[in-house]
Amino acid sequence: xxxxxxxxHLIQIRKNTVAQLDKHSANSNTIPNNFNNSxxxxxxxxxxxxxxxxxxxxxxxxxxxxxxIELYKKGTSASESNNIDLGELKTLLTSTSxxxxxxxxxxxxxxxxxxKTSFGITLNSIEEVIAFNNIHESLHLGYIISMSKNI
Length: 151
Known about the structure:
By secondary structure, the chain is an all-alpha fold. It has 5 helices and 2 strands, in the order ααααββα. It has one domain (3-148): dinb family like domain (Four Helix Bundle (Hemerythrin (Met), subunit A)). A hairpin with a 5-residue loop joins strand 1 and strand 2. It is globular.
């Protein structure tokens, strides 16, 4: 798959995530029975993960604050985190996916530090990050959809 196509898939995954946030905004910070996190945590975790994998590991500035990164990075949970503003989260999900497309097209991802994911996959380039990230975000979108049926 071409990376430009994978980025278009990311943009659609993010639209679907925002649609879920719109549908369940009143209960988006609830942790349903048999789940470890909330809808908001899963959406914000996706936001943060891509920033870390794409920008930080390319030694580039991120488009998300350090505070948000610390609250939603790998190893955090909804019980530990403050509630990000829902409007800000939706805006960032959309704007950062579009910005990734622009940055990729402008060729800013020149140096990448390889990273082994908890899936056991080593990422060696921005192209590999984008492909892997769609798997990761789809997994968490699936959690969001499942949670929405349980709140």
